[in-house]
Design goal:
This protein is mainly alpha-helical and 187 residues long. Helices cover 54% and strands 7% of the residues. The chain contains eight helices and six strands, in the order ββαββαααβααβαα. A two-stranded parallel ribbon has the order 1-3. The longest helix has 25 residues. It is globular.
Amino acid sequence: APDARLVIVGTHDDALADEVRPAVRSRVNEHLAERLERMPSLHRRLCVNLKEQLLFFPVDNSRSTEDGAASVDRLREALNAMALEAVDELGCIPTRWAHFFNILTQGDSEESKKPFVSLQACGELAMALGMPKDELEPCLEFFHRLGQLLYFPRSPAVVLDPQWLLDAMAQVVACPRVLDRQSHRAR
């Protein structure tokens, strides 16, 4: 989703020895700062760890100590705050949009089991559910902004499983024949 918030979590903080933990956290923070300098579009989307003044949330997976439990609580608080902000930003959506999305992605039809569906099938479902024709595009754009599906105007299909598309693209890019051709050009 283009406007999705970002949280960076460093797991297994408990695996670090107490004497090296501050130095490791500092190095990780510096590394992230260097990387984020080159990605200004992420600045406003990144949720930072204000309590510890870090760009990430170190988490103690064992939660066996008071500090370990507090690390998970800080992350939970940040995620809850982000969720509440998102709800405020979204405002109300028509119930029929939520119903349409639920049937489209979770329904019993063969269409809902596929990673993508035709725009025509989306239109037919919307009509069957009583959604006015002029609401289909705003509805699809809304769920696209949330990252729940991929919809591009004038495209004949809607991708219901964005991860499926990413995996398919990765297979094309990582195809041995494509890589072999690209390596010859690089010489």
